[in-house]
Each structure stands twice: as structure tokens, then as C-alpha cells.
From TrEMBL, chain B:
Alphabetical keyword list: Cell membrane, Membrane, Transmembrane, Transmembrane helix
PANTHER family: SLL0384 PROTEIN
Annotated protein name in UniProt: Cobalt ECF transporter T component CbiQ
Stretches assigned to coiled coil: none
Gene source species: Streptomyces poriferorum
CDD domains in the record: EcfT
Highest taxon, organism lineage: Bacteria
Principal localisation: membrane
Its membrane topology: Multi-pass membrane protein
Transmembrane segments: 43-60, 72-89, 109-127, 233-251
Lineage of source species: Bacteria, Bacillati, Actinomycetota, Actinomycetes, Kitasatosporales
Keyword Iron-sulfur applies: no
Length: 353, 253
């Protein structure tokens, strides 16, 4: 899915770049809160981990294999801010060092694969964790769903950007069905791998999983054959997430609606157009894909009547993306000018729309 | 591999391009790509001139053409996508080699191919003439937030370490008779990924402690500030300025 130069026109790329820069700036602040002064080494190492794990091949069948994209995994393991930061750094380095993804499309790539994936996955994960019973298994299930939705959501976000600023007029319905259809399949693999990985980490070091904080059972001591609560330090509440709860609920609903439609599309039209273009593109992988995809094999979209529907869907995603951006702006404003209530209020009403 | 000092694309050398300060090169490449992207697709000759400019820069940098061309292969997935465009884009149809293809689709494919290829070529040229360390310094000089540069530098430094760790885990798995054949083996691979994450994270904690014990307070001291003279800026600007001239001609002609 690394978008090259010339795929999205210059103005939209520029806007995407500005928005992505804003998102990265917000994440830098947030990551400092998530990791305090350990940010640089830890986020760096997690980015290196994401970079490495993208090369880990998961065989599907008969010589084909998939690999992790990592957005959802990063969000769940280290938190949304650090997650966005890590993925963005990976994308930046891939763009500069490996010429993977265009330099002018860097904003598009970060927004698409870094921000949308991570934010959607984390919002969905937190929402599900809040609803499900607090067990290990529900953590795994929540990460499955989060990763499953995050990949088509990124595809939909890309479609939206392509709709606004694509350099070629492919009917947007076609792009949407192709992108989202293929990405639901990719998302299934991503979801399975993410859930397995999160499950493995929770089994060994649950304290490292950012999304599972608060899952730890209180320490019990067996005194005279009876289980007694061990004396603990006063539990520290996590106020950081409180104010955004309503926002996350909205995001959750959006994502759920999206998921419903998306799966419908997936079963309707699993065609192979975008599969090729969405390869993550480390050159070894390219060979794999060239072998496994027959791009011309099955392409026949019969969805003329779907164009309106998918347009509406794109709108829904647009709302979601706006929400994300708006919340970022709200965040900055509320931190910057705590005294002045008006700008914050204005941003909040924007979000509600 | 490169033991953390070089990356796969870097080619050691002492050409005028190698010696340019990294931030000049970064700015020049970025400006060049922006100019290329804003060129109208109908000005086919302009893209030929751009290719000549890149080839000229590669010649000055003494990067062999074969090396550059081989690195362009990273684009292959999008080439496949571009080749589909003439068949899926609606519009005026025309005959090419007996196939009915659409004219806007052909233009779209040409647009993506030409601009994408030039962009990749420019990035490859940058990466093959700039060392990692100086690339990061250049990014810092270009006012990228220092924290982001630090994260990037840690990722680059430990990328090889983590990848090697993954490779060792893979060897350990295989030496115990594991063979990844299909979905049924995903459980083991997922556990490996989880273990890799824990190892990376704990390594990060150790690295942080080691840094703190050496006086780290949240920012890295800059010991080798890169500076650029006006002549160097002018030299680096040659590529994008020439490209800009071509672009302006492309808009007017």
C-alpha cells in the first residue's frame, strides 16, 4: 500500500502532509506521556520491531504468504500515540532509505497506514475491551476485531484520498470495492496474526501490553490457607483516557457501521485489482506477490448500482477521518490554552457534527 | 551485514554528490520530486528531460546505471496496477496492439509510471550517496523534531539487531524441526512475534538505562553539526532548478 509519487495530485498530497505532520506532532506529545523520558529508545526499538516483524512471513498455502502491517499491533501493544509514531518513523525510513513509497506521498502514507490504522484499531480495541469481560481471551478477541477492521479502514481512507486527489478518474465505486474487498482478506490475515501475537505477549508479560492495562488481577497472598488481598499501593487511576471516552464511542460506532458494510462488500466482490498495488513492497515480497497474484484473472466489477452506496460509505469514512483530525486539533487546543474555553468548545461542537 | 554503519542501498564513494551536506541533498531531492509531480502529464518530453537530469546526477555521483535500475524494481507492484488502468478506466477507447483500451486510462498509467519511477530513482540516488548517520543529521538540520530523529536513529541502529534476532529465532525453530507450511503453523509464528516484541521492548529498557547511566537527560548532544556553504547549496540546487525550468516549459508549451 506504499503510495508512490504521482498517484495522488500535489495539493491533496500537500494537505495530507500537513495533517500527517500535525498527527505526528500530537503523537510526539502523547508518546512522551505514555513513555516519559524513555520515549526515544523505547519507541525506536518498537519501530525496529515493527520493521522486523513486517519481514516475518506467514505462509498461507501453496507458496503464498502474507506478513504483518503492524498498525493495529503497535497500537495495542504500546498505545496509540507511540504506535502512530513508530509506524510513521518506519514509513519515513522506508521512504528515504529504501525508496519505498514516494517522498511527496509520505503524508498520504503516514495518514493512511500510520494514523488511520492505529487510531481505528485502538479505538475499537478499547471499546471492545470496555464491553467484554476482563479476561485474556477477550483481549485476544478484541485485538482480532480491531486489526480486522483497521486494514479495510485504511483502504477506505486511501480511497477517500484517491477520490479527492487521484490523478486518474477510475470510478470511485470500483476503487472502493477493489481496495476494501482485497483488504478485508488481508485484514483477516492481519487480524489472526495480531491476535496471536497479542495473546502471546499477554501470556508472558501482560504488563507490557498497553491496551491491557488494568487487566492485572490484584495480588493475593495465601495466609493460613486463605486467599487474602495483598496490601498494595493506592491504585493510580488512568485519567488520560477519560475525556475522550465519548469520542471513542463515536469512533466505535463509525467503525462498526463500516465493518458491517465492508464485510458485505468483501463477500460480494473479492477481486484482484488492488491486491498487487497494495503489496508492502520489500523487494523479496514483490516476487512473492508477482507469483501469487494474477491481476487480470478475475477482474470484473458488476457494481454500477453500487457507486452511490459506496459514495455514501466514503462519506461515513470521511466523517470518521474528520473526527480523528478534529480530536487531534481539540487535543492540542485544550492543552495549549487551558484558560481560554472558547476555542476548545468550538472544536468540540465541530466533532459532534 | 552492514553492522549498523551502512544500509543496503548505500554505495561508498567520494563523488561530488557524496560530499554534499545531507540536508542540501534531502531538500534538493524533495524539491525535485515535487516539481516532477506538479508537471502536467501531457508534456511527455519533460519527463524524458527529467530522466536525463537524474541520469546526469547519477553519473556525477558515479552510481552505475545497473545499480539504479535494479533498485527501481521496488516499484513493480505499482507498475502492475498502472498496467491495469487502461482497461478499467472508462472513457474514449482506442486500439493498441489489437486491444481496446481507454485513452484517459493510458494517460493515467503513463502519469503514475513516469512520476513514480522518477520519484523512486531520485530517492534511490539520495539513499545510495548518503550515509545513514548523515541522513539523520540532515533530517535534524531540516528541523524535523529532535525526538523523531532520535526515534528514527534508534530504529535504524537496532533494526539490524532485531532482524538478526528474528533470524536466529527462525534458525532455532527450524533446527527443532519446525517448518512453516500453512495457516496451522501461525500459532508458533505468532508466539515468535510476541517473544520478539518482548525482547525488543526489554532491550529498549536496557538501552535507556544504559543511556541514563551515561548522563542522558532526554536529548542527544549534537557533536558534529553539519553546515553547508552557499556554494554547496547552489550545487545541490542545480537539479531542482533545472527541473523547475523544464516544468515551467511544460506548463507553457
Amino acid at each position: 500500500m506504499h503510495v508512490p509519487d504521482g498517484f495522488i495530485n500535489a495539493p491533496v498530497s500537500a494537505v495530507a502532509g500537513v495533517v500527517a505532520a500535525g498527527a505526528v506532532a500530537v503523537s510526539l506529545k502523547g508518546a512522551r506521556r505514555e513513555l516519559n523520558e524513555r520515549t526515544a529508545p523505547l519507541a525506536g526499538l518498537v519501530a525496529a520491531f515493527i520493521f522486523a516483524v513486517q519481514m516475518l512471513n506467514f505462509p498461507v498455502a501453496a507458496g503464498t504468504s502474507g506478513h504483518l502491517l503492524g498498525g493495529a499491533l503497535a497500537a495495542i501493544l504500546v498505545g496509540p500515540y507511540t504506535g502512530v509514531l513508530c509506524i510513521s518513523v518506519v514509513l519515513l525510513m522506508q521512504g528515504i532509505l529504501f525508496a519505498d513509497g514516494g517522498l511527496t506521498a509520505l503524508g498520504v502514507n503516514i495518514l493512511d497506514m500510520g494514523v488511520v490504522t492505529t487510531v481505528v484499531a485502538y479505538a475499537l480495541f478499547r471499546g471492545l475491551v470496555g464491553v467484554l469481560p476482563r479476561t485474556r481471551r477477550s483481549m485476544t478477541a478484541a485485538s482480532f476485531v480491531a486489526a480486522l477492521v483497521s486494514v479495510p479502514a485504511a483502504a477506505a481512507a486511501f480511497t477517500l484520498m484517491y477520490w479527492i486527489g487521484g490523478t486518474t478518474d477510475i470510478p470511485i465505486g470500483k476503487v472502493f470495492t477493489a481496495m476494501v474487498g482485497v483488504h478485508v482478506l488481508i485484514g483477516l490475515g492481519e487480524a489472526a496474526i495480531t491476535a496471536l501475537t497479542v495473546g502471546a505477549v499477554i501470556a508472558v508479560r501482560p504488563d507490557l501490553v498497553h491496551g491491557a492495562r488494568g487487566l492485572t488481577a490484584p495480588l493475593k497472598l495465601r495466609i493460613d490457607g486463605e486467599l487474602v488481598d495483598a496490601p498494595t499501593a493506592a491504585p493510580t487511576p488512568a485519567p488520560a483516557h477519560r475525556p475522550t471516552k465519548g469520542l471513542w464511542a463515536t469512533g466505535l460506532v463509525t467503525a462498526l457501521v463500516l465493518a458491517g458494510f465492508v464485510s458485505f462488500y468483501a463477500s460480494a466482490n473479492p477481486d484482484g485489482l488492488e491486491k498487487v498495488a497494495t503489496d508492502q513492497g520489500i523487494d523479496k515480497e514483490a516476487k512473492d506477490h508477482a507469483a501469487k497474484d494474477s491481476p487480470l484473472a478475475d477482474y470484473g466489477v458488476k457494481d454500477v448500482s453500487d457507486a452511490r452506496l459506496s459514495g455514501g460509505l466514503a462519506g461515513i469514512i470521511g466523517v470518521g477521518a474528520t473526527l480523528v483530525v478534529g480530536s487531534g486539533a481539540f487535543y492540542v487546543v485544550s492543552r495549549r490554552r487551558r484558560a481560554g474555553e472558547e476555542p476548545a468548545a468550538a472544536t468540540r461542537t465541530d466533532e459532534k457534527v | 551485514m552492514g553492522a549498523g554503519h551502512a544500509h543496503k542501498l548505500y554505495r561508498h564513494g567520494h563523488s561530488p554528490v557524496h560530499d554534499l551536506p545531507p540536508h542540501c541533498k534531502l531538500a534538493a531531492v524533495f524539491a525535485f520530486v515535487v516539481v516532477v509531480v506538479t508537471t502536467p502529464r501531457e508534456a511527455v518530453w519533460a519527463f524524458g528531460l527529467y530522466a536525463l537530469l537524474i541520469a546526469g546526477a547519477a553519473a556525477v555521483a558515479r552510481v552505475p546505471a545497473g545499480f539504479l535500475l535494479k533498485r527501481l524494481l521496488i516499484e513493480v507492484p505499482f507498475v502492475a496496477f498502472a498496467l491495469l488502468m487502461p482497461f478499467v478506466v472508462p472513457g474514449e477507447q482506442t486500439q493498441v496492439l489489437g486491444l481496446s483500451v481507454s485513452v484517459p486510462g493510458l494517460w493515467g498509467a503513463w502519469n503514475v509510471l513516469a512520476k513514480g519511477t522518477l520519484g523512486v530513482a531520485a530517492s534511490v540516488l539520495l539513499a545510495s550517496t548518503t550515509e545513514l548517520r548523515s541522513l539523520l543529521l540532515g533530517l535534524q538540520r531540516l528541523r524535523l523534531p529532535p525526538l523523531l530523529v532520535q526515534i528514527a536513529s534508534f530504529m535504524i541502529r537496532y533494526g539490524d539487531v532485531i532482524t538478526d534476532e528474528m533470524r536466529r529465532m527462525s534458525i532455532a525453530r527450524r533446527s527443532r524441526g519446525f517448518e512453516a507450511r500453512g495457516i496451522r503453523q501461525w500459532g508458533v509464528l505468532g508466539k515468535s512475534a510476541g517473544a520478539l516484541f518482548i525482547r525488543s521492548y526489554e532491550r529498549g529498557e536496557r538501552v535507556h538505562l544504559a543511556m541514563v547511566s551515561r548522563g542522558y537527560t532526554g536529548s542527544m548532544p549534537v557533536i558534529d553539526e553539519v553546515t553547508a556553504s552557499r556554494a554547496q547549496w547552489a550545487y545541490a540546487a542545480a537539479l531542482p532548478v533545472l527541473a523547475l525550468v523544464v516544468c515551467l516549459l511544460g506548463w507553457t508549451v
